[in-house]
Amino acid sequence: MGLLAFLYGTVSYVTFLAVFLYAIAFVGGLPVPKTLDSGAAGPLAEALIVNVLLLGVFAVQHSVMARPGFKRWWTRIVPHSVERSTYVLLASLALALLYWQWRPIPGVLWDIEHPTGRVMLYALFGLGWVIVLLATFMINHFDLFVLRQVWLRARGADYTEVQFVTRGFYKFVRHPIMLGFLIAFWATPHMTYGHLLFSIATTAYIFIGIFFEERDLAAAHGRSFENYRSEVPMILPLGTRKPEEPKRAMSPR
Predict the structure, then answer these.
(1) If you write DSSP's letter for every residue of 36-93 in order, what string do you get?
(2) For a Cys-Cys bond, which of 102, 147, 212, 216 suits 142, CB 3.0-4.6 Å?
(3) Is residue 84 in a domain?
(4) Is the peptide bond before 243 cis (omega within 30 degrees of 0)?
(5) What is the model's pLDDT at position 142?
(6) Assigned domain for 133 exists
(7) pLDDT tens per residue across span 34-49
């Protein structure tokens, strides 16, 4: 069973990685089969309904399966070692569905034509994705995206919580991964109404998700997390005081 869990976790990770890389092209309008603005535009009402439903499918799956109560119920059905693998796989498939079925919405809110402005915005877009990726390694990338769990299971070792040390970005903001996403979703020289809908919806979801995540972290880690929250800003690196080290794992979910 350990080998099967490892293979399942590996498939989940590879699926996540492919979906993550495609997201960069999807949002940035790079040459891939489908982006936020590619394809023939249909009726506005249809596009709005379909896109909101697609965003909702991802939001519901991503949020509900992350709640401690759901995980307690879910692990009565699936082994603990593949619980997160299943979560990551289903989240990746929900995003793939969004890429596939997303409806473009024509109309332009802004279009920066000056070459310097375009370069700066594309650089900011790239920086956002770099922040996201680096921030995952500043906690534990392979624990966050399931490979550590299934590797331990394959070795017959018990899972242990990853110790959280406030290194790198986590010294300045509590949610650098979400900060990176916000930068990447809004930094564009060509903001269409479809892109605007995507950016507004994902921004709202990010802040709602942070609220529930921090509530769970406070319940799980008590004073250690409360101290961290009082010392380090949520998103913008303003007024930071260096937190004490080490703290227990507080990885996003």
Answers:
(1) TT-S----HHHHHHHHHHHHHHHHHHHHHTTSHHHHHHHTTTS-HHHHHHHHHHHHHH
(2) 147
(3) yes
(4) no
(5) 66
(6) yes
(7) 999 998 889 999 999 9
